[in-house]
Amino acid sequence: MIDRDRLARLHERELVDFARRNPRSAAAYADAGHLLGRVPMTWMNKKAGGFPVYFESARGSRVSDIDGHEYLDFALGDTGAMAGHSPQPVLDAVRRRIDTLGGITTMMPTTDAEWVGAELTRRFGMDVWSFSLTATDANRWAIRLVRALTGRPKILFHSYSYHGSVDESLIVVGPDGEGMSRPGNVGSPVDVTLTSRVAEINDIAGLERQLAHGDVAAVLIEPALTNIGIVLPDPGYHAAVRELTRRSGALLIIDETHTFSAGPGGATRAWGLEPDVVVIGKAIGGGVPSGAYGLSAELAERALARADLDLIDMGGVGGTLAGSPLSVAAMRATLQHVLTDEAFDGMIARAAVFAAGIEAVIVEHALPWSVAQLGARVEYRFARPYPATGTASAESADGDLEDYLHLALANRGILLTPFHNMALMAPSTTDEDVARHLEVFAEIVAELVG
Questions:
Q1: What is the domain class of 88-338 according to CATH?
Q2: Residue 413: pLDDT over 90
Q3: Distance between CA 219 and CA 251 in Å, rounded?
Q4: Is 391 helix (H, G, I), strand (E, B) or coil?
Q5: CATH number of 4-82+341-449, picked from 1.20.120.530, 3.40.50.1370, 3.90.1150.10, 3.40.50.300
Q6: 401 touches 382 (CB < 8 A)
Q7: What stretches of 271-340 show up as alpha helix (H) in DSSP?
Q8: Strand pairing partners for 157?
Q9: Model confidence at 419, in pLDDT bands (50, 70, 90)?
Q10: Is 21 exposed, middle or buried (CB count within 10 Å of its CB: 0-12, 13-18, 19+)?
């Protein structure tokens, strides 16, 4: 459906415009010789324009770069800034902790921590909580715990699910239907098939087949895939997952790091899921590094009753900065005043308008693309119907087309998540922001298809 010569010409035009618009960013990138890959984190080299835009300032759903351009930000730190950039209640809480009370990190508890734990219980249903700095660390701790409690060695994942840099999770379904290391995996300590099993989301038979080996300690999944495009579960899928895990003696860990967009209690609350462990990170700190893991009362009792497990020293995950006064104060402010139940109502409503507008453009031009919504999160893929598994979603990727769309949007003042075509609504995202994106997207697509 896309003329590749036209795509190449348009992309070249946008590259020239991007370089013209961003000389300071280009110079900063050229001068960054002391950084690996010239960036603070190598994933910042996911850049459609040949070099990254350098950040200057942000507030709400707007960011500005060092060349003086302001952008509507629908990336929002790939969920890390789902509360918006620098929300005032979080700034106030952080300032109070730093300027008035002091003590950024102390290795001592604060009363804020109990408030956050109680609020997470209200939202997600888990009985007790502990904190980390990232969801990656929370996932690592959960994996260690479930292995200890079940005596089983393997963790089962969805193919192409996202759990940070957890070694065990970097497994996908191979051509033979069995697990293999995800392409591009760097320095795996052991063959991932020794630690993990894998099944496609929505493949109940495949999940049952992998659980039948009897060596799976837990199924650790996103309730919907989010980092390979949004891949939603089929009706009844999660009920089948819960029934199969219980029958096989495996525990169920739900990672809500991205699917928190589904609502105030993530997909766990929105869809009535019944996990043994919930993991969350990024968004709950309002931009301050934060993560948490919650356990059912039954699982917590089992862990605490094990005298052979050193949960005080060897069981600690997240380091001395986890659960610090600063990060817990930020979590409380975010959950109490920013990412509230009421805020989600507006975020999800705007995402629905965003998704409907994308679908209208797709239909107008009879494009073989599709769009999916997960609460406040929207994504379009270059396939129709929308992919139903992680592998199918990966196969629908079109790097040249994706780079062009991202670059054309950026040149017109709009940012999407650089790794895929994801847009996220914050409480600060307005109806006008959504309308502006849809206006620009429609113009770009119309020119692309001719």
A1: alpha beta
A2: yes
A3: 6
A4: helix
A5: 3.90.1150.10
A6: yes
A7: 297-304, 325-333
A8: 198
A9: confident
A10: middle
